[in-house]
TrEMBL record:
The chain crosses the membrane at residues 20-42, 72-96, 108-132, 160-180, 186-206. It comes from Natronoglomus mannanivorans. Keywords: Membrane, Transmembrane, Transmembrane helix. This is DUF4013 domain-containing protein. Signal peptide: none annotated. Pfam families: DUF4013.
Length: 232
C-alpha cells in the first residue's frame, strides 16, 4: 500500500504539471481560494480511488474543485472546532474559578484539561479522513457527519492501520518540506510540491481503504468508470 500510494501520482502523464500546480496552490493557501482548489483535488483523488478508478485526476474543473475544497476545509474546521471550544471553556472555567492564584488542584485540572483537549483533537484528526471520504463519495456536506456510516469504519482495525500509514506519509513529507524550506529562493516552492505530493499519497491510502470497507456503486458510461452520485 505504501509503494502504491507513493507511486500513485507518478502514474499520471501530467505528474510534474499536477505536482507543481498543487505545490503552488498550497504555497499560496493563505489566500484561501488556492487552498480550496488544492483540497478540491484531494477530494477528487479520494472519490476516484474509493471507486476503483485508477486514472489520476488533473486540475481542470476549477469551479467544482473550489466548491469541493471549500467544503472539505469546512469539514476540517467543524471537526476541530468542538474539541477547541471544549478546551477553551474548561480551561477558562478553571482559571476564573481559581482567582488570582492557581493552586495544585487547579494546576492538575489544567493538565487534565490539556490532555483531554489533545485527545479530542486527535480523535477529530482520526475521524476527518473518513469524513472526507464519505463526503467525496456522496458530494453532500452532511455525509461527513453521518455517524451511522462512519462509526463502523472508525472502529475497524484496517482503517486504524491505514490512518497511521497516511499520517506517517504526511509526517515524512513534512520533514522533507522543512528541510527544503531552508534552501534560498526555490526552497519554499519545492517544499510545497513535496507537501502536496505527500498529501495526495496519504489520501490515496484513505480512498483505497474506503473502497475496501465501504464499496461504492459504479456504472460504465461511454467506456469510462463513473458513479451515480448526486451532484450537489
Amino acid at each position: 500500500m505504501l509503494q502504491e500510494a507513493i507511486s500513485y501520482l507518478r502514474g499520471s502523464d501530467d505528474v510534474w504539471k499536477t505536482s507543481i500546480i498543487g505545490g503552488v496552490l498550497l504555497l499560496f493557501g493563505f489566500l484561501l481560494i488556492p487552498l480550496f482548489l488544492a483540497w478540491g483535488y484531494i477530494v477528487e483523488v479520494v472519490d476516484r480511488t474509493a471507486r476503483g478508478d485508477d486514472e489520476v485526476p488533473v486540475f481542470e474543473d476549477w469551479g467544482q474543485l473550489t466548491v469541493d475544497g471549500a467544503k472539505a476545509v469546512a469539514i476540517a474546521i467543524v471537526y476541530s472546532f468542538v474539541p477547541a471550544v471544549i478546551g477553551v471553556v474548561l480551561i477558562g472555567s478553571i482559571v476564573l474559578g481559581s482567582g488570582e492564584t492557581i493552586g495544585s488542584l487547579g494546576a492538575a485540572g489544567l493538565a487534565f484539561t490539556g490532555l483531554l483537549t489533545v485527545g479530542l483533537l486527535l480523535a477529530a484528526a482520526y475521524a476527518f479522513p473518513a469524513a472526507v471520504a464519505h463526503f467525496a463519495a456522496e458530494r453532500r456536506f452532511g455525509a461527513s457527519f453521518d455517524v451511522e456510516t462512519l462509526r463502523p469504519i472508525l472502529w475497524n482495525r484496517t482503517y486504524a492501520t491505514r490512518w497511521l500509514l497516511s499520517v506517517g506519509i504526511v509526517l515524512a513529507g513534512s520533514i522533507v518540506t522543512a528541510a527544503l524550506n531552508e534552501l534560498p529562493m526555490i526552497g519554499l516552492l519545492l517544499g510545497s510540491i513535496v507537501g502536496f505530493y505527500a498529501l495526495v499519497a496519504a489520501f490515496y491510502v484513505i480512498g483505497q481503504t474506503w473502497e475496501e470497507l465501504h464499496p461504492l456503486p459504479t456504472t460504465e458510461r461511454g467506456g469510462e468508470l463513473s458513479s451515480d452520485r448526486p451532484a450537489v
